[in-house]
Amino acid sequence: MSPASTCITGIRELWTVGSEPGSGRTIRDAAIIIEGDRFAWVGPAAEAGSADAVVDAGGRAAIPGWVDSHTHLIFDGDRADEFAARLDGQAYAAGGINVTVNATNSASDERLRTNIRGRLRDAWLGGTTALETKTGYALSLDGELRSAELAAELYRAGNLEAVTFLGAHLVPDSPAYRDNPDAYVDLVVGEMLAAVRPHVQWMDVFCERGAFNAAQTRRVLEAGRDAGLGLRVHGNQIGPGEGVALAVEYGAASVDHCNFMSDADIDALANSDTVATVLPACDLSTRVQFAPARELLDAGATVAIASNCNPGTSYTTSMQYCVATAVLQMGLSVPEAVRAATWGGARALRREEARDGLPALGAVEVGHRADLQLLDAPSPTHLAYRPGMPLTHSVWRAGERVVAGRCLTGL
Ligand SMILES: N=CN[C@@H](CCC(=O)O)C(=O)O
Ligand SMILES: [Zn+2]
């Protein structure tokens, strides 16, 4: 049980992260007061009021918890052989998804529950306090419904922030659909969507060569919109394509990957409310050119960084690794990368403001959900300066201390 109010003091450097680029505050010798599940006060330690409990941060730095707006946590098996083949020069192709579909459909509910919880634990230990996850490794009516239900269990328990229906991940390799992909799209936008609808808030589609073409993507997005779901798109990952343009046209909250971008794609994103979500760990694992995050930011687009945890292209939930890569390889400053992995992720989930009775995420501001991490470092700059080090010391999630001194106390 958490005390009614907690003052975290002795913070050497706090990055609050703000809603406009560059608008967050850096407060040295800071304190934060948490009341219930919200931030109640943020400022210089010398001015902090009293609280029921006091935690000494011991001169550590503090930033918001990571908001990981793109993961695929519901799966069984791994694809290390496919990864090794890539190291030998093989290109990534969408068809590998079938391997995970077979493994996932063979796993029991209990096994999948254990897998998801293990991945969530790793994420929380690494400073992630909010997560989206997707279906998409079952590709049958019953299987997609099972994945949606398993994710919804965690959503309803408050352990996940968003569940996305990704029945349109790949056309399954079965006699019924192999030569008739449109029949599979019929199933996705019809019976499957109706079945999963009570368990999900978002609809996603993999618009790419080898997955779904532009016409099929339109059908999926229109069905999602008509069902009252928010929209997301996997686009422009393997090559140039229409994913980004369609995401903007349909007002998707986010288009994710964004590796192969034309000037028009960048321009369209910069003039839209669609977040460009970049996935640095995926770019490294698949050895494709990095998404042009620097150009997107310079053009005025909103950029989010997410882990894209999945067994095919990015088997990690480490947001620190993604942030360090965005800085070291994609040309972002540390404040830009931290903002993209916190406020940017919240914006991609449309949770950067309080909405529908849910508190805002992604910044250390009064009234926001109290999601915070203390780093074993005097400044957040160490996230890129000491890549790969276990820098997350403590994590508060909705006001609960779920990690203390690198030990998980929740979940
Ligand atoms: N690109 C589409 N979906 C996943 C990877 C799927 C897989 O290969 O298993 C992604 O976001 O990278
Ligand atoms: Zn993905």
TrEMBL record:
<dbReference type="InterPro" id="IPR011059">
    <property type="entry name" value="Metal-dep_hydrolase_composite"/>
</dbReference>
<dbReference type="InterPro" id="IPR006680">
    <property type="entry name" value="Amidohydro-rel"/>
</dbReference>
<feature type="binding site">
    <location>
        <position position="137"/>
    </location>
    <ligand>
        <name>N-formimidoyl-L-glutamate</name>
    </ligand>
</feature>
<protein>
    <recommendedName>
        <fullName>Imidazolonepropionase</fullName>
        <ecNumber>3.5.2.7</ecNumber>
    </recommendedName>
</protein>
<feature type="binding site">
    <location>
        <position position="234"/>
    </location>
    <ligand>
        <name>Zn(2+)</name>
    </ligand>
</feature>
<keyword id="KW-0862">Zinc</keyword>
<keyword id="KW-0408">Iron</keyword>
<feature type="domain" description="Amidohydrolase-related">
    <location>
        <begin position="63"/>
        <end position="382"/>
    </location>
</feature>
<dbReference type="InterPro" id="IPR005920">
    <property type="entry name" value="HutI"/>
</dbReference>
<feature type="binding site">
    <location>
        <position position="137"/>
    </location>
    <ligand>
        <name>4-imidazolone-5-propanoate</name>
    </ligand>
</feature>
<feature type="binding site">
    <location>
        <position position="169"/>
    </location>
    <ligand>
        <name>4-imidazolone-5-propanoate</name>
    </ligand>
</feature>
<keyword id="KW-0378">Hydrolase</keyword>
<dbReference type="GO" id="GO:0050480">
    <property type="term" value="F:imidazolonepropionase activity"/>
</dbReference>
<feature type="binding site">
    <location>
        <position position="237"/>
    </location>
    <ligand>
        <name>4-imidazolone-5-propanoate</name>
    </ligand>
</feature>
<feature type="binding site">
    <location>
        <position position="70"/>
    </location>
    <ligand>
        <name>Zn(2+)</name>
    </ligand>
</feature>
<keyword id="KW-0479">Metal-binding</keyword>
<feature type="binding site">
    <location>
        <position position="79"/>
    </location>
    <ligand>
        <name>4-imidazolone-5-propanoate</name>
    </ligand>
</feature>
<keyword id="KW-0963">Cytoplasm</keyword>
<feature type="binding site">
    <location>
        <position position="312"/>
    </location>
    <ligand>
        <name>N-formimidoyl-L-glutamate</name>
    </ligand>
</feature>
<feature type="binding site">
    <location>
        <position position="234"/>
    </location>
    <ligand>
        <name>Fe(3+)</name>
    </ligand>
</feature>
<feature type="binding site">
    <location>
        <position position="72"/>
    </location>
    <ligand>
        <name>Fe(3+)</name>
    </ligand>
</feature>
<keyword id="KW-0369">Histidine metabolism</keyword>
<feature type="binding site">
    <location>
        <position position="308"/>
    </location>
    <ligand>
        <name>Fe(3+)</name>
    </ligand>
</feature>
<comment type="function">
    <text>Catalyzes the hydrolytic cleavage of the carbon-nitrogen bond in imidazolone-5-propanoate to yield N-formimidoyl-L-glutamate. It is the third step in the universal histidine degradation pathway.</text>
</comment>
<feature type="binding site">
    <location>
        <position position="70"/>
    </location>
    <ligand>
        <name>Fe(3+)</name>
    </ligand>
</feature>
<dbReference type="InterPro" id="IPR032466">
    <property type="entry name" value="Metal_Hydrolase"/>
</dbReference>
<dbReference type="Pfam" id="PF01979">
    <property type="entry name" value="Amidohydro_1"/>
</dbReference>
<comment type="pathway">
    <text>Amino-acid degradation; L-histidine degradation into L-glutamate; N-formimidoyl-L-glutamate from L-histidine: step 3/3.</text>
</comment>
<feature type="binding site">
    <location>
        <position position="310"/>
    </location>
    <ligand>
        <name>N-formimidoyl-L-glutamate</name>
    </ligand>
</feature>
<feature type="binding site">
    <location>
        <position position="308"/>
    </location>
    <ligand>
        <name>Zn(2+)</name>
    </ligand>
</feature>
<comment type="similarity">
    <text>Belongs to the metallo-dependent hydrolases superfamily. HutI family.</text>
</comment>
<feature type="binding site">
    <location>
        <position position="313"/>
    </location>
    <ligand>
        <name>4-imidazolone-5-propanoate</name>
    </ligand>
</feature>
<feature type="binding site">
    <location>
        <position position="72"/>
    </location>
    <ligand>
        <name>Zn(2+)</name>
    </ligand>
</feature>
